[in-house]
Structure prediction request, 402 residues.
Amino acid sequence: MPPSRLAPPVAKLAADLLGQIDQLADQLLARIAEQIEIYRVGSIVGRGELRTSLIVNMNQILTRLSGELETELSAPRHIGRTRAMQDMPLPELLRAYRLGFAFLWERLLAAARDSGQKSVDALLDTATTIWELADDFCLALTESYREAMSERMIAADRRRSGIISAILDGPASGSLSAWEVAKLLDLPYDGTFLVLVAEVTSSNSSALPRLEDRLRQLDVGSAWRSQPQHEIGVLSLGRRDPGEVLASVAQVALGRVGVSPLFHRLDGAARALRLAQVALETSAPGTKGIRSLDDDPHIDLLVRDRDTTRRFVVRVLHGVLALPDHERTTLLATATAWIDSRGSAAEAGRSLYCHENTVRHRIRRIEEHLGGSLDDPRLLSDLTIALQAIRAFPELGNRLDT
Prediction:
C-alpha cells in the first residue's frame, strides 16, 4: 500500500486513535466476545491474551495509517502461528480480524465526521486502501497459520511413524513395548490385525487414495508409515470380515499390494510385515491388485533366505522344471492339488477337473522326475516344501534352462 495514497487527514485520524488504543481494545474485546462464541467461552484464548493481541494488531494498523512507509505484518504472522499451535479454528480467527477492521473503520468514520466533511471525504477516498490493508493482514495471518499447521502435521507424522517403527521393525528399533505402542496409536494390543505394503506408483499420489476414510466407515483402526516407494499400514479389523476390508483396499489400490496373514497380537507386526513385503515383491511388476501368503511356519523359513530357497527348489524339482512349459505347469499343479488333498487322487481330480486315474498317472511321472517314491516321507516333505516355495515365489516355478 503506497504511502502516497494516504491523505493527511486520514493520517491524523489514525494518529488520534493511537492515543486511545487501550480504550479501543476494551471495546473491541467486548464486541468479539459477544459475537464469536469460542472467544466468549475463552477455552482456547483467555481475555487477557486476546486483549494484548488486539492492542498489538491495532497498533500496527493505525501506525501504518498514520504515515508509516511500509506495512508491518509481524502481528498477524505471530497471531497466525500462535493460534495454530493452540488449535484455534482458522474461520473463527479470520472472523475476529474482519470484526476488528470493521470496528476500526467505524471509529475512523466517527472521528472523521467529528472533524468535518474534509476528513470524511479524505477517509472515503482512502477506503479501498484501508480494505487492501485488511486483506494484507488476513493473508499474512492465513499463510502463517497454515504454515504452522503444516509443520505440526509433519512433526506428528514423524512421531507417529517412529512409534509404528517400534512394532514394524521389532524391539531393537526403540524402547517402546508393543503394549505402549498400542496405547499411543489408539489400537488394541489383542485383536485381529493385518499388515499392508502398498506400492507407490506415482510421486504425486497416494498408493491407496481415500482408504483411511473407507476404513473409518468400516470401523477399522489403522496406523501408517510412508516411504518413498511404499506405504505400510497396520490394520485393526475388530469384528469386521477380512474379505470386506480387503475388498475396500482392492478398490482404491493404484498398484501392487502385499497383505500379511491375519495375526492376533500387535507384537506380531514385524513378522507380518516381512510376509507382506514378500507378497508384494513376488507380484508381477506393472500389475494392480492384492497378494498374500499362507500363514504357514515353513513360509518364515522360505522367506528368510531367498537364495537358499531357490537352490532347494532346483535340487528337488530339477527334472520337472526342465520340462516344456505346458507339461511343467500341469505336473506342478497336479502335485499341489494332490498334496492339498492329502494324497487323495479323487479329490485332486475334482479340483483339477480331470479323472482320478489321470492324477495317478501324473503323480507317477512326477516320481520319475524326483527319482523316488512319494511313499518316502522325506521325499514327500521335500516336494511339499518346494511347492510351498513356488507358491510364495512364483518365479521359482519358471522353466529351468539346461
